[in-house]
Amino acid sequence: MKVLVLNVGSSSVKFELIETSLDAIDNQTEKKLGRGLIEKIGMTTATVKFKSPDKPDHISMPPIWDHQSAIKQVMKLLTDPETGVINDISEIDAVGHRIVHGGEYFSNSVLIDAEVAAKIRDCFELAPLHNPHNLKGYDIMQEVLPDVPHAAVFDTSFHQSMPKHAFLYALPYSVYQRHKVRRYGFHGTSHRFMTYSLESRLVNRSRADFKVITVHLGNGCSVAAVDGGRSIDTSMGFTPLEGLIMGTRCGDLDPAVVLYMMAKEEISLHEMNTLMNKFSGLLGLSGTSSDVRELIEEMGNGNERALLALQAFSYRVRKYIGSYHAALGGTDYICFAGGIGENSPIIREMVLDGMEKLGIKLDKEKNNNLTGDGEITTDDSPVQVYVVATDEELVIARDTVRCIAGIVKH
Ligand code: ADP
Is 113 a catalytic residue? Predict the structure, then answer.
């Protein structure tokens, strides 16, 4: 069946059409028919990109006023005689929607019905910048393709297995009861993808039998401790701001800093939020860029702030790996993914170098020469470290197929 994977943001729509089935999932023979991105919706500079294996890349700047016209554009791209990969939208058998927040309602992906939509709506206040747009994507697609199943795949659901002692903040318990303030965790699809990839391709061992620390390093970054295929802890919390240093987000912070800064500089809630989310992290520390590639280049040119930013970034990842090693009572594997995790041997080395006493023996040559997925530790390393090209769209397509078949997979 052909599954359209849809990720609708405030001003963007990311989509991919994947041909798949239960058999194709088992044999990992899914076919990616085409993927695209519509950015800057509602602006005069709105851009449409579409890529499919057998056709020339498409890029254009038609007027895209709102999400409705963006989805119309998606349908046009998919069916266009020049760019398209299907003849008619009736060839789409199902839609998988990325939904950021499932609150405490969802620990699995589900088919969307009125009740599910209401619960997603109920989580709006937990993810005001994401869930309303995600659900709007569903509402629009529901009108375009009313007769096919639509599935919701949540960023948070994988981490619903965290025990209470890991997900609660040490605030008065009533804060959790009254306002649902707790750690939820995000990037669940990527942490799951890493765990499944180890199981099915890299170590050929049931995930029920191993422990792994999964490290997703992209523009957003998070680590998870996965025991027997279940997340027992993760670095992101109530929002994706907690945890690692990220491109523009600060990660862990003494909460008193927020109060101090707001008083000291007389800044509003909104400004403080922007400072921590958009002007901190690698960008804040380096003063020049949030992009690791650029920072590595600047570091090579002797820019000390770029070096400092990358050292702080790697040190934070290292600390989380250490703490999850302890939380798991020792780990079998560590797995890196995301733009940085997949492509930057320098950062992987800065994170892992000198951790032999924790059983992690990095093989620098393997690390530097790795192309694609693979292992980067020495043959006698007690903990094996892998790199995996993550594929969140594929997880969403697979879950959609499984939801339709009534199969639940954590
Ligand atoms: P997103 O979280 O938005 O999906 P990505 O997973 O694409 O982001 O990760 C973006 C980050 O990956 C950027 O910091 C970018 O510099 C980094 N990156 C991509 N390619 C490389 C590379 N070859 N070397 C180092 N960093 C890289």
Answer: no
Whether 249 and 106 map to the same domain: the answer is no
- Whether residue 26 lies inside any domain: the answer is yes
Active-site residue, from 57, 80, 155, 252: 155
Q: Write out the residue range of the structural domain in which residue 218 sits.
A: 204-387
Please identify, by atom number, the ligand 1 atom nearest to the C-alpha of residue 292: 16
Asked whether residue 150 falls in the same domain as residue 208, the answer is: no
Same domain, 219 and 133: no
- In this structure, is residue 92 part of a structural domain? yes
Which tokens in the block code for residue 199? 């199981």
Separation of alpha carbons 365 and 351, rounded Å? 16
Q: What is the pLDDT of residues 46-102, one digit of tens each?
A: 999 999 998 889 999 999 999 999 999 999 999 999 889 999 999 999 999 999 999
Name the closest-CA residue to atom 22, ligand 1: 343
- Phi–psi pair at 381, nearest 5 degrees: -70, 125
The string of pLDDT tens digits covering residues 230-276 is: 999 999 999 999 999 999 999 999 999 999 999 999 999 999 999 99
**Residue 66 within any structural domain of the chain:** yes
The model scores a pTM over 0.90: yes
**Domain membership flag for residue 408:** no
Question: Would the CB of 338 count as within 6 Å of ligand 1?
Answer: yes
> Secondary structure of the chain: what % helix, strand, coil (to 5)?
45, 20, 40
If one counts every other C-beta atom within 10 angstroms of the C-beta of residue 179, the result is: 12
What CATH number does the domain containing 65 carry?
A: 3.30.420.40
| Domain edge (last residue) among 119, 154, 189 | 154
Task: Using the atom order of ligand 1, give the atom closest to the CA of residue 338.
Answer: 6
Contact 112, 146 (CB under 8 A): no
CA–CA distance, 182 with 234 (Å, rounded to integer): 12
